Each structure stands twice: as structure tokens, then as C-alpha cells.
Automatic annotation (TrEMBL):
The chain crosses the membrane at residues 12-38, 44-62, 130-148, 154-172, 231-257, 263-283. Residues 328-563 form the ABC transporter domain. It holds the Pfam family ABC_tran. It comes from Streptomonospora nanhaiensis. This is Thiol reductant ABC exporter subunit CydC. PROSITE patterns: ABC_TM1F, ABC_TRANSPORTER_2. SMART domains: AAA (SM00382). Keywords: ATP-binding, Membrane, Nucleotide-binding, Transmembrane, Transmembrane helix. It is a multi-pass membrane protein. Residues 13-297 form the ABC transmembrane type-1 domain. It is found in: Cell membrane. Gene3D superfamilies: ABC transporter type 1, transmembrane domain, P-loop containing nucleotide triphosphate hydrolases.
């Protein structure tokens, strides 16, 4: 996490120096004030106090200016680093692989809370200890020059308060800190599940149990926060105790030295008050150390996203011709989701000639959606080859492939905005005429025209203002507007009732005319209108041919169709 700030290392170094100057000015201010008051008690001439008066004013002003500049420099560098980290996280999420590996609420917690731990580390985790090291060392050296035993006593006190107490606080806070990040993720997940699943929870009488789950997650996070607060309080108390003992020790040594004639009364005042002020240098460190466990845990969760292994290899070339041959050929395709996992696709061969509509049908778990993921470059084959116009798609950037291959996923996401903005996701520069043409091809234009606001109609959160069939047609219109050469329709009727399903299939196949189309489905509706059908079971193609050929041949297709 600290390495993320390396490009701004000079800024942080400047911030540490400015922070040391501000903290040192605060300590020096009290030391100069002690000297001035002790000297004034001897009634010297006003000129003898002139330097201390000027120094006091300069240190007072300089302390504020240095503190402001330190906050300005360090926060500027930290926020720039945080912005870069956020960009890296967004870029990683844009590759889609992490979405299937983390629960949505937990992923949001990693994206927000755990990413911001970078800021906590840089501003509150690294800067204060470095400032304390510089200022504490300089103060101890100064008091050693004034009175050696007093300087050594201060150095020992600072080591106890600035090192021993923080190390103890870090040890006590490590486990609660580690569990806090997980607890935040659990609470976020429980809340998201409750909000999104509220209708089903109410329908099945499970809302009370779900609320209890949220309460339990909140109680666990509260308990950990209380444990964290107890550690902070213990650290503050230990620091106060060490401060008091060190100041009393300095006073005892100083008084003895004054009585022995080895130290002046003025130097005694400087020694004692400077010792008291010096502990402000290390005061933040126990709290910093107690937070390190939580920061470390957040960093681990953050890099759990950043270090997710990419499912697609980096491209080796660019320049895929968007107007080229849209024929798709799949040769001996093999895919699995882990080294010890079974093959999701095991030697699949199929072809989608230019302008043809090809269906892949089979039971759930046969590997159909995995095929769609490979075609859309969400993951790469573990074996075999996928060609688009004779070119291996894995050698080109994913965005270039997706410019030619688009589709309608099984659960298309509809954003809580207008119909117009949902359509323009596919092509932001599209005018209203092009939007209406896409709606017409998806057979949604009449429904939209019947609404009072037309394209400005709000679709609601997750498309709740639309029927299931309208959501699928909207997703199809969005895909058509993107003007791909190959259209992939992945289980587009999976959650629709039979009447709506038949109508949507008709609309999908009508809108797909002119594209090279792959229809992935487990249902037989509309298959008499496609050019070729591949039956996939257990990751293998077990039958292929036209609807008429497969309906006559013995096998899964005829058995399911007749059933």
C-alpha cells in the first residue's frame, strides 16, 4: 500500500519536514516561553527579553503556517494517490472478473471503505511516525545538550510512549482490525440482500429473520468498534502515565542538579516544560498503531480485488476490422473455472456463418453461458480456438472484439434512469431517430410511444417500471444500437412466462435479421426458425443439424421436444 505513493514520495517527504517544523515549533514555543518567564523573574532589562519575545511570536506564527502547509502538501499527495488507486480498482472491475468472485455488498465495501484505507495509511499511518521520529530526536538532542540526564530521560520516555505503547496497541488492535473489514463487508452484504430481496422476504415471511441477520452483523461491527475504542483509551492512558512519570523524573533530576550547582534555575524551567511539551510529539502514535490492524486488513481486501487473476490474456495485436467477415468458428474449445474443476466446455466445435442464426440448446449446466462468456471476451479458452473472420479473438483487445460481438445477457441490467439514457449506453452519440429505429427493430417502439414521456420515461430501479418482456426488448434494442456484426442472445427468455416468452423470441429473431446470431437457450421456442442447432450436454456437442433433422433423429433434442 505504501508503494502506491512512491510517485509522490518527494511530496510526502516535504510534508514530513513541514510537519516536523510545525511540531518542533510547538515544543520550542513552550521552551522559549519557559526561558522568558524564568528570566523575567530575575527582573532583567527589557532588551534581554527582546529575542525571546520575537522568537515567541515567530514560533507561534510559524507553527500555524507550517501546519497548514503540511496538511496541504500531505493531503494533496494522499488524495492524488487515492484517486489513482480508485482508478486502478475501477479498471480492474471493468474487466468483470471480480464480479463473480465477491458478493455485491462486500464488493461495495471493498470499493469504498477498503480503498479509502490508502488515505488513512498515508495521512494517519505513515506521516505521524516519521514526524515524531524527526522532531523527537531533535528535542532529545537539544535537552541532552542542556542537561545530559534530562535528555536521556526524555529519550527513554519518548521511546516508551512512542514505540512501546504503540507496539502494544498494534498487537491488541490487530485482530479486531482484521475482523472489522470483514464485519463491514458482512453488514453491507446483509443490507443489500435485505433491500433487493425485500418483496420475496415479505412474501415468504422471512423478513424478521433477515432483519435479525442485519442486527447481528451490526452488533458484531459495534462490538469490534468498542474493542477498538478500548484499545485507543488504553493507549492514551498509558501515554499520559509515561508523560507524567517522565516530567516528574525531569523535575526531580533538575531540582537536584540546581541544588548541586550543575544546572541553573532558568535551565530547569526549560528542561521541565520542554519535556512536558515533547510528549505532544508522540501523542498520536498509539491511535495510529491501533488502526494499523484495520488498515492492514483493508489493504488485504483491496488487493484481493486488484490481484484477481485476469481471465483474459493481454492482446498481442490490434486492428480487428469492424467491417470484416463476421463468421464465427469455434474449434475444440475447452474451458474450466479452476485447475481441479471439471470441464465446463470440453472440445466444442461449432460455426456461425455470416448472416446465419444458430442456436445452442441444452440443459442447465451444460456450458452454454460459458460459451457466451468466451465469445464476449469475458474469459479466454483453456484450450482450442475461437475465430472471428478467421482471426483468433484472444489476440485482439477485448473492446475491439466487443465492437463486433455484442448481445443480450441472461439478466440484462437496466439503470435507474430514462429509456433514452439506457439506450445511449450502447452509442452515446445516437440521436432520437436512431433510438426509435432500435426500439422499432426490438418491437418496443409502440409501447414506448404509448407512454406520456416517451424516451424520457423513467424505468425505475433495476427496471421495476418495465415488464420482464420489455426489459429483454430494451436490452435487445441497446444491442442493436451498438451495431455489432455478431449478436449473442444468452437465455433471453429464462425468467419469462410462456406467453411473454413466445412473443419475445419472435421479436428477438426478427430483430436479429442481418446479424450473425447465436441464440443460447434451454427451451424449444422458435427453433424451427433458426438455420442450425447445436445440442450441448456436459460441455460437449452431442447433436447438430436443422430443426427438422434433429426432430427426426434419435437423441436429446427429439426427446425434449416430444416431452
Amino acid at each position: 500500500m505504501a508503494a502506491l505513493a512512491r510517485p509522490r514520495g518527494a511530496r510526502f517527504a516535504l510534508g514530513v519536514l513541514l510537519g516536523a517544523a510545525a511540531t518542533g515549533a510547538g515544543v520550542a514555543l513552550l521552551g522559549v516561553a519557559a526561558w522568558m518567564l524564568a528570566t523575567a523573574a530575575n527582573h532583567p532589562g527589557i532588551t534581554a527579553l527582546g529575542f525571546s519575545v520575537v522568537a515567541t511570536r515567530a514560533l507561534g506564527v510559524g507553527r500555524g503556517v507550517a501546519r497548514y502547509l503540511e496538511r496541504l502538501v500531505t493531503h494533496d499527495a494522499a488524495f492524488r494517490t487515492l484517486a489513482e488507486v480508485r482508478v486502478r480498482v475501477y479498471e480492474r472491475l471493468a474487466a468483470t472478473e471480480p464480479f463473480g468472485r465477491f458478493r455485491s455488498g462486500d464488493l461495495v465495501s471493498r470499493l469504498v471503505n477498503d480503498t479509502e484505507a490508502t488515505l488513512d495509511l498515508l495521512v494517519r499511518g505513515l506521516t505521524p511516525p516519521l514526524i515524531s521520529l524527526v522532531t523527537g530526536g531533535a528535542t532529545a538532542l537539544f535537552l541532552t545538550a542542556v542537561y545530559v540526564p534530562g535528555g536521556l530521560l526524555l529519550a527513554g520516555g519518548l521511546l516508551l510512549a512512542g514505540l512501546a505503547v504503540p507496539l502494544a496497541a498494534a498487537a491488541l488492535g490487530r485482530e479486531p482490525g482484521r475482523r472489522q473489514g470483514k464485519a463491514r463487508g458482512e453488514l453491507s452484504t446483509a443490507l443489500v440482500d435485505t433491500l433487493h430481496g425485500a418483496p420475496d422476504l415479505v412474501a415468504y415471511g422471512a423478513m424478521d429473520r433477515q432483519v435479525e441477520r442485519v442486527d447481528a452483523a451490526d452488533a458484531e461491527l459495534t462490538r469490534l468498534a468498542q474493542r477498538d475504542a478500548a484499545v485507543l483509551g488504553l493507549g492514551a492512558g498509558a501515554s499520559a502515565l509515561i508523560t507524567g512519570l517522565t516530567v516528574w523524573g525531569a523535575l526531580f533530576l533538575g531540582v537536584a542538579a540546581v541544588e548541586g550547582g550543575s544546572l541553573s534555575a532558568v535551565s530547569l524551567a526549560v528542561l521541565v516544560l520542554t519535556t512536558l511539551a515533547a510528549f505532544e510529539i508522540v501523542a498520536p502514535l498509539p491511535a495510529v498503531a491501533a488502526k494499523l490492524g484495520a488498515i492492514r486488513a483493508s489493504g488485504a481486501r483491496l488487493f484481493g480485488v486488484l490481484d484477481t487473476s485476469p481471465a483474459t490474456a493481454p492482446p498481442t495485436r490490434a486492428g480487428l476490422d469492424p467491417g470484416g467477415d463476421p463468421t464465427v468458428r469455434v474449434r475444440d474449445l475447452r474451458v474450466r473455472y479452476g485447475p481441479d474443476e471439471p470441464w465446463a466446455l470440453d472440445g466444442v466445435d461449432l460455426e456461425i456463418p455470416a448472416g446465419w442464426t444458430v442456436a445452442v440448446i441444452g440443459p442447465s449446466g451444460a456450458g452454454k453461458s460459458t460459451l457466451a462468456s468466451v465469445l464476449l471476451r469475458f474469459r479466454d479458452p483453456d484450450g482450442g480456438r475461437v475465430e472471428l473472420g478467421g482471426e483468433d479473438i484472444t489476440t485482439y483487445p477485448a473492446d475491439e472484439v466487443r465492437g463486433m460481438v455484442s448481445g443480450v445477457p441472461q439478466d440484462p441490467h437496466v439503470f435507474a434512469s430514462t429509456l433514452r439514457e439506457n439506450l445511449r449506453l450502447a452509442r452515446p452519440e445516437a440521436d432520437d431517430g436512431e433510438l426509435w429505429e432500435a426500439l422499432r427493430r426490438a418491437r418496443l417502439a409502440d409501447d414506448v410511444a404509448a407512454t406520456p414521456k416517451g424516451l424520457d420515461t423513467q424505468v425505475g430501479t433495476h427496471g421495476l417500471g418495465l415488464s420482464g418482456g420489455m426489459v429483454q426488448r430494451l436490452a435487445l434494442a441497446r444491442a442493436v444500437l451498438a451495431a455489432p456484426r455478431v449478436l449473442v442472445l444468452d437465455e433471453p427468455t429464462a425468467h419469462l412466462d410462456p406467453d411473454t416468452r413466445d412473443a419475445v423470441v419472435d421479436d428477438l429473431l426478427a430483430a436479429a435479421e442481418g446479424f450473425s446470431t447465436l441464440l443460447i437457450t434451454h427451451d424449444m421456442t422458435g427453433l424451427d426458425r433458426v438455420d442450425r442447432i447445436y445440442v450441448v450436454r456436459d460441455g460437449r456437442v452431442v447433436q447438430h443439424g436443422t430443426h427438422e433433422e434433429l426432430a427426426r433423429a434419435e437423441g436429446w433434442y427429439r426427446d425434449v421436444g416430444s416431452g
